Each structure stands twice: as C-alpha cells, then as structure tokens.
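During the no-cost extension, the postdoctoral fellow (Dr. R.K.) reprocessed legacy sequence entries with the updated structure-token encoder. One reprocessed record is reproduced below for audit purposes.
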Amino acid sequence: LHHRAQQAQMINRLYFQLDETWGSGQSACTLIAKLLHSDSRRVRIEATGHAALTDDIQLIQKFVESGWSAETPKDGESIYEEWYGSLALLNAAARDLISHDCALERMSPRLYGRAAKTLSSDAVKTISQRINASINRLADLEPDTATPDIELQFQSTSAAMPIPVSVSEREVQTNDPFKTFERFSESDEDFDKRQKKYFDAFLAFKNQLTDNQARIVLDSIELEEFEAVVEADPETANRWCELFLGLTTGLSNVHNFALLLGYALSKRYPEKTARLFRHFRSVRPLVRYTFGAAGLPLAAVAIWASADDPAIEELRYERLDRAENDDELAQEILAALWEGKENLLFDYIDMKLKTNEPAQIARALMVAGFTTEDRRADDVLRRYKDSCGFLGSAHKVARQAYERNVWSQYWFRAMCEAPDPDTFWRYSVLLGKIVDGRIRTWRDDVSERREPMMTFAHSVEEVGRKRIKKWSELRRKTLFGQEAPDPIFLGVITNS
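Re-encoded structure tokens follow.
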C-alpha cells in the first residue's frame, strides 16, 4: 500500500509540477531520467511525456541514453508510452541529439507520419519502403467479415496525444421491427456483453493485421505527413497510384492510402488524382478516418484540400450534387470552408440557381445556409424569402441554419469577453443549444479571451460536441429540410 501511495504521489508531481524546483533543473532531470525505468507503467508514461514535450536538452539527452525503444518488451501494451517515447525520439532527432536512422529504428510505426515531417530525406525514404511493404500486404488481406466499425478520430485539440480509436457495431439496415425493440429492451448485462463482443472482434482484427504485417491501416497518417513521404520517394508513389487504380478487389483495405496519395499528387497530376478519387468514391473503408467534432470523412477533407484544378473542381461539384441528405451536404460544405474554398461554393450556388429547376435551387439554398456569414449568402437567401411550397420549406430551413451560425459566433464572442464565471456560463448555455461544426472555421478569429474563458472553456467542450453530433443525426434524416427520399430517386434528379 505504501508503495502504491508513493507511485500516486510521483504521478501527481509529474503531472502537475507543483513546485518550481521540481519542473526544472539538474535534480529534476536526473530524477525523471530514473523514472523512465520505473516498474509502474503510469509513472513511465508521465516521465516519457516530459521527455517528449520538453525543451530541456539535458532531459532529452538522458532519454536518448536510456536506450528506450518501442520494440523493448514492457508490462503489457501501452499506447501512451509508445506514443510519448516515439515523440521524445523525434524531439531528440530535431535537435541532432540522435541520428535520424537510429531514431527511426527505435520509434513506433504509429508515428511514421510525424517522422516524415521531421527526419532526413533518407530516413523518410526508408519509411516509404516500409509503408510500401505494408500496403502490398494490405491489398491482399481478406479481413474477417465480423470486423466491427473502426474509426480513427483526428481532432485538433492536442497534437501530442494519440489519435483516439472508436469501435462500434457496423450499421446494418434492417426492416425487422423485433430486432429494433430487442435493442430498446436490452439489459445492462446484455449491453456489456455486446460491447465486449465488439472489443474482442477489434483485438482479433488487430492481431490479424499484426500477423500479416499490415497494421499500418490502424496507424494515424495525416494529409501533409503522407505528402512528405510522397515528395521523398516519388517513384514509389507512382507505383502506388498504378496499384490502386488497377485494383478490383480489396479496395476498402487501401481506401485511406489511396485518398492520402490523391491529395499528395494533386499539384503535379490533378487528372490522375481525380481518377483515383473516383475509383474509390463508393468504397467503404476498412478503417474510417474522421476529422474534427463534426466527424468529416477523409474523402471530403482530401478532395477539398487538394490543389485547385478543373478536374478536381468537377469532382467537388459532383460530391455536392450527390449528397443524399442534409448531413452529407453540410459535411461537404464544412470541408470546403476548412480549406478556404468559399468562392467555389458560391460559384456552385450561382450555377444551380441559373438552372431554374426547383430541386437544384433548393440545393443551392441549402449550400448558402450551411456556409459562414457572408454577404453573398445573405443576398441569395433574401432573394427567395417569399418562396412558397417546396422552395419555401427549403428556404426556411436554410435561413435557420444560417442564422444559427451567426448567433453562434455572437455567443462565442460573448463567452470570450465574459468578465465573470456566471456570465460565461450563461453565454455557454446559449451557444450549446445551437452550435454546429462551423465553429472550427471562426473560433480562432476571436483574439481577446478573458480569464473565465481561459479557465472554464474545457468544461463546455463536451456540450458543444454533443450538440454537433445531434445536428448530424437530425440532418441525416432530411434533405432540403424535408424527409430524405430514397437514394434511387436522387439518382434520377442529379443525373437529369
């Protein structure tokens, strides 16, 4: 018991750095270096985290000399220790305290993306060859049909934290009402069993990937990171492109890498990029990459982030045309806003309005409603304010969505300027009732943030995430604010 109390005290000190003498200096450096070899996993994680995020050259050097390696057996798998240890090696490599090749050998493949933006071109070429070997194995892999829905959630909150992984049941469309009612009446014990079933299926899938040296599909590589790999080894990237375009099976396995590659090649080969995106357009990925609280899919983010070119622009407009419900449309627009493509959205609106077809005009109105505050959107919505029937309903929903975002900005600014906690809380409640994913496009524009905002902002983040999720669930059921029709009818409308 005394030993566990000491561990707890040590973890608290490492985490909070309660006194000035603890957080810096030779004695702290020496003590943290010793804790890197602690028997307690939690103590090792906190000590390794210090080495990963510190600017203290002595501590970073001590970590390098500790011989830490992601391959070294430990007391069970620890994602955080593996993550922080690899970050610490990159921290050391950036300061030339360890050779880049040595850092690459000792770090975890989970951070190959980060390494591609930090290490030398030769080391990045080595990463490219390792990714190449994994992709080739992945393309031939036959996953178990019982694989659950796996989602890697890329958030912008902290680049130092591992990417969260969500595991849930794959959606299965059913018309059997008894199955639905069975879920409603599920006991706590049955719920726990079902959750354990998903987790066990995930572990089995992860072991299958490890056995086939294809676990890279569970590793987090972002757009700019994969672009760095492609720039370091363009020949291998071209081979990937030919491989992906030639695939007729196993497309879901390499889906994410195909989209990452498309983004990386878009500046030099936009037409080939468009072919690549289209080849994987209807493919459901083995592991889903999502971005931000709104859960934007990788396909939307990659396509709108790619270089501007007529071939890519045509593909973007096709995605707006093919959105089957208001949630898909809102996500597509949000991805465009993230990448500063407002002008393309308004070009699209103008093009749709000129058709004089009610369905096309309704889609244009929804696009205007899902943008951020802009005079052009105001003009479009004002022009159709007296519409009746189908267009009148679409205009009403679009105007409400537009005004909610305007008020969200107002209440967020009021939160930032709130002089006391009570005022901050009052404005946060108002924001939490209406905010949606567009908050990410303007929240950093408010530079002045008073003490209540700095102190309590984290306490209301979860409320915002829940509201964004709720908007997504509601919009998934509608198109232009009305009940979404069967996709078969949308095919007739968008192709006419």
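The chain has 26 helices and six strands. The longest helix spans residues 389-417. The remaining legacy entries will be reprocessed before the final report is submitted.
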